[in-house]
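Hey L., structure's done. Input below.
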Amino acid sequence: IVKADKKTNAFKDIDVSNLSTVKPFIEALFIASEESKPVKKIVKSVFESHDIKFKKKTCKKMDATTFISLYGEIYGKLLILRTGIEE
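Output:
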């Protein structure tokens, strides 16, 4: 579906044609956010930086490319969190 940029950890070359649905990704995002305060903080900050409310209903209304793009941004920030290196 995507390729990851090794320098920025962001997703690039997003091709959602092989993706049937984003529902599992939406569920995973909300489960991870409920289980970890640092993860929730990152997720909310990414959504807010794009002026989007972090709600399931909002995520379900997004087109797949937009959602996967946001997911990639969150992925990159989580990698930074796990390495312990500040941005």
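The beta strands are 3-4, 11-12. The CA atoms of residues 27 and 56 lie 8 Å apart.

-- N.
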